[in-house]
Amino acid sequence: MRYFTKFGLVLLLAVFSVVAILVITFSGIAFGAGKNMTVKPDSNSVANLVPITSQANNDLDVSKPVSNKIVANTPSPTSTLAPSPTPTSTPVPSYPKPSQEIPLVGQPTPVTFTGKGQLSDRTFFSTLLNKNMSYRIYLPPGYDSSQQRYPVLYMLHGYSGKDEEWTWYNLPTTVDSMITSGKAKPFIVVMPTGEQEYWMDHPNDGPKWAEYVAKEVVDYIDGNYRTIPLKESRAIGGLSMGGNGALQISMNYPGIFGVVGAHSPTMRTYAQKLPWWGDESWFAQNDPIQLAKTSDYIGQVKLWIDIGLNDQTWRPRALELKQVLEDRHISFTWTDYPGDHVPQYWTDHVGDYLTWYAANLDFKTP
User: Fold this and answer.
1) Helix-strand-coil percent breakdown of the chain, rounded to 5?
2) Half-sphere exposure for 39 (CA within 13 Å, toward CB)
3) Chain segment 213-253, per-residue pLDDT in tens
């Protein structure tokens, strides 16, 4: 009996050991199956555990999860692309149109000069003066091969000169050199004809030489060349009689020229009047000094005045204008250079003039 009891205990322990081994084995299989599950959402967005491909797990029943923990499968966020902006064309700048159309007629006559731009002579018909008027024009390098617009400098000649006078003082070659060397941005230079009429509108309904410049020449150039037709991009300057003209025209026709230069201006007194001049009332309307005493516009322009230290004939009146401007607290550039009222003076300083114009013209297009 004791032997049987011992034998029975041994047998019972052996059975328990076999059962334990079987339990451990099947537990390991179940655990392995759970590790090889992936989450796959059904149509109700609840996660079903689906085995990944494994030959060892093909016979497992995976219709039920091996765990009571359900893991939801969160769908990957879908990126929403912003709508592409509707392509828009670059707006074309709007410029004021010339008040009158003056056609470009004939062919230019090229003028030989040592530069990379173009220098030529042309004519157009002036209705105000009732005759053909000549002008010389400088176009910067690249004008013909681009669609660029350019500021314009109008340079008036003196009493003894004509439209080619500024060429005598090397203006075209100097401006061309400045542009090609990168010292100045490209701009157009126009040198019109004013004969010996002091660039003034004559009294008693006579020829309108100031209006011819401010209206006809400017409209003609703006209508036939690629200019920036705005006052900030339009300068007027001149020497001697032309310096007087630049001052007077800018004040009598405000809003057209935003940059003004007077180089050795010959501002005559009424006692120095020319035979065709009108009375003192007419003189007051055309004298730069008297105009500067009341003009609002002279304070709105960029203004340059220079006069030779030895220019004794015209220096006193220039100093008088300087005092008027200072009394009115008007900003301007005043320069005294050694020299007299002679061609060498303007030749020596044409580069200074052009540097100032280039720095003060507006090259921006709207």
Assistant:
1) 35, 20, 45
2) 12
3) 999 999 999 999 999 999 999 999 999 999 999 999 999 99
Asked whether residue 125 carries a pLDDT value surpassing 60, the answer given is yes
Dihedral in degrees, nearest 10, Cα atoms 345, 346, 352, 358: 170
pLDDT at 42: 41
Polymer length of the chain: 366
Residue matched to tokens 């929403």: 80
Instruction: Give the span between the Cα atoms of 152 and 161, in whole angstroms.
Output: 21
Q: Which residue has the tokens 């090397």?
A: 170
Give the C-alpha separation, 264 to 249, whole Å: 16
Can you tell me the distance from the alpha carbon of 238 to that of 192, in angstroms, rounded to the nearest whole number? 11
Identify the DSSP state of 44: T
- Give the global pTM: 0.76
Spatial distance between the Cα atoms of 106 and 111, rounded to a whole number of angstroms: 16
Q: Which residues contact 180 (CB under 8 A, 6 or more apart)?
A: 115, 116, 141
* Pairwise CA distance, residues 270 & 96, whole Å: 38
Report whether 194 contacts 157 (CB < 8 A): yes
Classify the phi-psi angles of 106: left when phi > 0, otherwise alpha if psi is within -120 to 50, otherwise beta.
Answer: left
pLDDT tier, 105 (very low <50, low <70, confident <90, very high otherwise)? confident
* Residue at token pair 């011819």: 212
The separation between CA 26 and the C-alpha centre of its own chain, rounded to angstroms, equals: 84
Query: What is residue 32's three-state secondary structure?
Result: helix
Q: Which of 121, 116, 211 is nearest to 173 (CA)?
A: 116
* pLDDT tens column, 173-184: 999 999 999 999
- Report the helix count and the strand count for the chain, using DSSP H and E: 10, 11
CB 263 within 8 A of CB 345: no
